[in-house]
Write a structure and sequence with these properties.
Strand content: under 5%
Helix content: 40-55%
Number of strands: 0
Structural class: mainly alpha
Distance between the termini: 18 Å
Order of helices and strands: HHHHHHHH
Shape: globular
Largest sheet: none
Length: 162
């Protein structure tokens, strides 16, 4: 399953606080500060091999790298979208005549807590562009829309994952 790159980055950011609540940027005042969010994400995306720092070897690796090998050969036959996981999974099982299904509402975000207040709208233009650069192939693979154009045109309220 793949996930919208913007939402994936945001969940990884908050997920670190779940696994390391006493970490350097996990205090509620800090972790919910948009300036701090953007600083941390830029540092992660500018680090060697996108997140292989600080004992988090897979958090920021492009999802495309799990679907295609280094030669560009596709090694995963079916790619499901996290946003539609239940319906896509159930359709795939039906296609293969397998009596397996996920009940509605099974998809949840284990990294989200009640005090996570930021959304993708908190990303500044620099972060949006960096995410779009690093995850270019993920946007194509999942047919996800890039948000930086709307941001540049001053349509801040149109930043949406829908």
């Amino acid at each position: 399953a793949i996930r919208n790159p913007y939402e994936r980055i945001l969940r990884n950011y908050y997920g670190r606080c779940k696994t390391n609540p006493k970490g350097i940027y996990c205090g509620t005042n800090k972790k919910n500060d948009p300036k701090w969010l953007n600083k941390v994400i830029v540092e992660q995306l500018n680090g060697p091999e996108y997140g292989r720092l600080r004992n988090h070897p897979t958090n920021f690796i492009p999802q495309h790298d799990y679907v295609f090998d280094k030669t560009g050969k596709r090694i995963v036959k079916h790619v499901l979208h996290f946003e539609n996981l239940t319906s896509e999974f159930n359709a795939l099982m039906k296609e293969y005549s397998l009596n397996i299904s996920l009940p509605e509402g099974i998809r949840k975000d284990d990294n989200k807590s009640s005090n996570d207040t930021l959304s993708v709208k908190a990303f500044d233009l620099t972060v949006l562009r960096r995410i779009e650069e690093v995850y270019e192939k993920d946007f194509e693979l999942g047919n996800y829309t890039k948000l930086s154009l709307g941001y540049e045109l001053g349509n801040h309220t149109k930043l949406s994952l829908g």
